[in-house]
Amino acid sequence: MGAIALTVATSNTAQATPLQPECSTTGAWGYVYADWYGAASRIDFQMTFSDTKADGHHAAARLVTEDVNGVKKYWPWHKDTNGANNGAVDYNSYATNSSGIFDWGVQVGRFEGSTMLNSCTDWAIA
């Protein structure tokens, strides 16, 4: 009789979990996408957002993160000044925090100049 060999392959590499927090508020919509490996000091992300209302205001979005101590960081805003329903703005970047990034998400807002009129926030894992 012949012997049968069974081989089980395993991998020690970390597996990313793709997450996409998304929200909409009057006049603005957006999401941020990242392959999430869990708590780390860096996150690479893709953000997409859009002005959804022809009201003379503009939309903006930004990354938000939370560190190991629960401290939230609100990253710089990125604006959509192309007018309502003229396609989404895509923004690719990364963020680092020496205190770690333990949660992250997107904040989307509608603005009159630099004054935020309304906003929403959605978190990846909270």
Main sheet makeup: 5 strands, antiparallel
Mean pLDDT: 87
- Provide the helix percentage: under 10%
Distance between the termini: 57 Å
**Rg on CA atoms, Å:** 19 Å
H and E order: EEEEEEEEEE
Secondary structural class = mainly beta
Shape: elongated
Q: Can you count the helices?
A: 0
Explain what the structure shows.
With 126 residues, the chain is mostly beta strands. The chain is built from no helices and ten strands. The strands form two sheets. Strands 1, 2, 3, 4 and 8 form a five-stranded antiparallel beta sheet that branches. Strands 5, 6, 7, 9 and 10 form a five-stranded antiparallel beta sheet that branches. A hairpin with a 5-residue loop joins strand 5 and strand 6.
